[in-house]
Amino acid sequence: MASILDEYEDSLSRSAALQPGCPSVGIPHSGYVNAQLEKDVPIFTKQRIDYTPSERITSLVVSCNQLCMSLGKDTLLRIDLGKANEPNQVELGRKDDAKVHKMFLDHTGSHLLIALSSTEVLYVNRNGQKVRPLARWKGQLVESVGWNKALGTESGTGPILVGTAHGQIFEAELSASEGGLFGPAPDLYFRPLYVLNEEGGPAPVCSLEAERGPDGRGFVIATTRQRLFQFIGRAAEGAEAQGFSGLFAAYTDHPPPFREFPSNLGYSELAFYTPKLRSAPRAFAWMMGDGVLYGALDCGRPDSLLSEERVWEYPEGVGPGASPPLAIVLTQFHFLLLLADRVEAVCTLTGQVVLRDHFLEKFGPLKHMVKDSSTGQLWAYTERAVFRYHVQREARDVWRTYLDMNRFDLAKEYCRDRPDCLDTVLAREADFCFRQRRYLESARCYALTQSYFEEIALKFLEAHQEEALAEFLQRKLTGLKPAERTQATLLTTWLTELYLSRLGALQGDPEALNLYRETRDRFRAFLSSPRHKEWLFASRAYPRAAGQSWGH
């Protein structure tokens, strides 16, 4: 067989010389990726927005390419980022000393809520200039809002959830319709649903996320300073089916399941990653006192949505009593933490910090960071400046990370369009299977690579794995082009010799009768192929193979 192997390698060399523009099956696997492919712009690139605010920035939110910024205590600046040169300024008309506490903008970019330190809430619609106080909300310091992504539209929010500083969760609904002087108020209703507690009693509802799974079940994740609660259930039938009352009613007699951590920042923040705006979220990250709890979200699980959970602990100098993180956003493969002087990006696959981006002191300390889920852009701001992060080709090196984890299917998925990288993955998978003595799987992978043919064939020969060698040769033969007749003839001849050798070793052994018959049937099927016959006649091996007496 060594002579056939030598002839095959010679034929590859001749073929390569005759067809310099065509890759051959003998191109060696180099083991590295062309460095030029990796010389791209960074995944996260920061851009300072060319804008100097007239007053200090107190809050900023972005959604659906709509940016809303509060300046001082009485000015709202709205910018459609598709028409950035046409900003719109609205005066809140406040005569008291109330300050903007937080702002919330829904997924359509249409409904803006402005929570004031005076426990009042203002509503501004994207298509209007009027600032409308929400009378039913008065007396509540709003900390979080869970928007209804399934039912919310530009004209109305559908049922939404509102979390307060005193642990209460309310259900509310807003309408953009202004009617007239005596028209309906924007806040259609505002009713209590639940109270979240920690050890000492009610605790601020720091984050609220409301989603609906593919099976129709609803779920709500709510966080306090130290706890993450999960409400899971199916909405009741009838008029109330679109609201959340039925979901929360199931937990009247017993508390929902929760995760708890001992350290306390005084606040926490929850971030989701959703591939498409109206699809179910895939991952979560919860910034709390002990670090960041992150993982996958599985809407199909009956009792807990959280899976593959991990905790990333804050490094020295970060956390309660040191330099506390101020905000978190989540992308497909990273979470980004905002600190007073920098942004740190952590890969969710490895837990490694991949970016530390420091900001100049002249801009002042960073205040918050938000993500526009519709565009994937990230926004950070100080009192005097606004910055935008573009996320570009975030998955470019994910294949390499999965490869190092021996998760070959995922590695192949993320380099499907990059032949050099795919070849690296297939070769590594083949080597892994060979070491695990999964020789047939190894042969199938090797056959798809551009590794040295001679090297792979000798590996199977030295391991006495003729069946795997035959699999490797068969798959190489199937992948040849019609013009590669010399290689096809040699591979067909080699396979014929392997079959004959195998049948000769099995013949006459009563205990191997079934295996003998299976091998014989495969060989007959191999010989019945017109292409194989043609190549065997060219090598003069067919008469010898056809003349064998195989018995029954």
Automatic annotation (TrEMBL):
GO cellular component annotations of the record: HOPS complex; late endosome membrane
How does the record classify its membrane topology?
Answer: Peripheral membrane protein
The record's principal subcellular location, in a coarse class, is membrane
Q: Where in the cell is it found?
A: Late endosome membrane
Going by the UniProt record, its keywords in alphabetical order are: Metal-binding, Zinc, Zinc-finger
Against PANTHER family, the record matches this protein to: VACUOLAR PROTEIN SORTING-ASSOCIATED PROTEIN, VACUOLAR PROTEIN SORTING-ASSOCIATED PROTEIN 18 HOMOLOG
Q: What is this protein called?
A: Vacuolar protein sorting-associated protein 18 like protein
Q: Which organism is it from?
A: Tupaia chinensis
